[in-house]
Amino acid sequence: MLKKIFILAGCVVFSTTSFGFCEEISNKELLFEIRQLKKKAEAQAKKIGELETRLSRQESLPGTIELQDMTIEDFDRHLDSHLLHRKEGYFMLGGLRMGLGTTFIIQGTTDANGDNLSGKGEDITDGSYSIDIEFEKKFEDYGKAYLHIETGDGGGVEDELRVFSNVNRDADNSDSSIAVTEVWYEHYFKDIPAKIMAGEIDGSILLDTNKYANDETTQFLGRLFRNSPTIEFPDNGPGLRLGIEPVDFMDVSFLMMDGDSDWEDVFDGGFYAIQLNLKPGLFKRNGDYRLMGWLSGRGHTKWQDSTKTKENSYGLGLSFDQELTDSIGVFLRYGWQNPDVYINGEGFSLEGAWSIGTQLNGRLWDRKDDILAVALGQIIPSDEYKDAGTGLDAKGEGHIEIYYSFKADEHLTLSPDLQVIWNPYGGDATNGGSVITVIGMRGQMDF
What we know:
The longest helix is centred in the N-terminal third of the chain and has 33 residues, at 27-59. The protein is mostly beta strands. 34% of the residues are buried. The chain has helices at residues 2-13, 20-23, 27-59, 72-79, 383-387, and strands at 90-91, 96-112, 122-139, 143-153, 179-188, 194-201, 237-247, 250-257, 271-278, 287-302, 311-323, 328-337, 341-343, 350-361, 371-381, 397-407, 412-422, 435-446.
């Protein structure tokens, strides 16, 4: 087209009968070609504007790396946002990345209600620590390998509380024994927008994820706000995960794990789940709207017929997070599970759980690396559990948690934490009171 325009322009300047080809080109044709070029230029300008808007939205996120400063590894890390426990880390020889972090937690309560106590309302102060060591290796544009090693000690106050959902998701009461909790390989397909992961995996960071409530080392400590208690996640174990992203605003993942997490008969009693994640860009802000369903083939007993001990269970859930401004985000979770059965060996079953919360970034008060967050939730036991001759009231157990994350320096973050639980264990614990208050402090150090 450009060649033709140059010819047309030449004809305008050198209009003469000695240039026969110029006589064949009219002003109408010239205007048509100019208009076509103008349309293309306008379309390109619109596309550039859209890309600039998208970039500005990404750069508004707290902790986002400036595009001009991004390395390939930085960009890859931001794409893999489902691995929320991952530390920033540093790079070693051959492109291997290592992350090292340790978490210390101390919690105290004057209202402990565990059955192992001599009476209700005992004073308890306990601590715990954990260490996470992570290695990651990216193989050009076709795959990635990951290794996660953990150790720790101390159960915290959890073993002195009788509740449906406990207060220290980070507690690792393993007597400082070292364990490989994750080791997997993920392959990226080049011809289709898909990737597959296989190995020893943690389903709780692949399903029911949430930007503001999914990491006990930096966000909420309470288990209710880490993942929905209505999802019967297996312990870390053998599994497969297939992820497909057909369009920018949607991705789908399929998860299959060994229900017993023991690498024996891995297809017997399996855990299967599907999650749809929609990213509509509401208010021109980042947000994820996840819908999920799961099925567990572990041994379940039917409440109304104790002879049926090999029943399946299943459930549905949603997990939404939405950025409202550069400094404010909100989240919502809801989960439901089959109320007719319970896991063999457990004395209760849940039917539903919900939680809502908000996170405020410290830039609102000139502390851009600090976080203030609050969450409210409730766990609802099943009617079948109450009607199965237990003689218990089994009310809904309510939770509220507030934490403040104070960035002390480049490596240390201190987080005072307050949790209040009412109707613990549905109000039916042997040493139960009506309210439990837990005050704690978390120290997170990243090396």
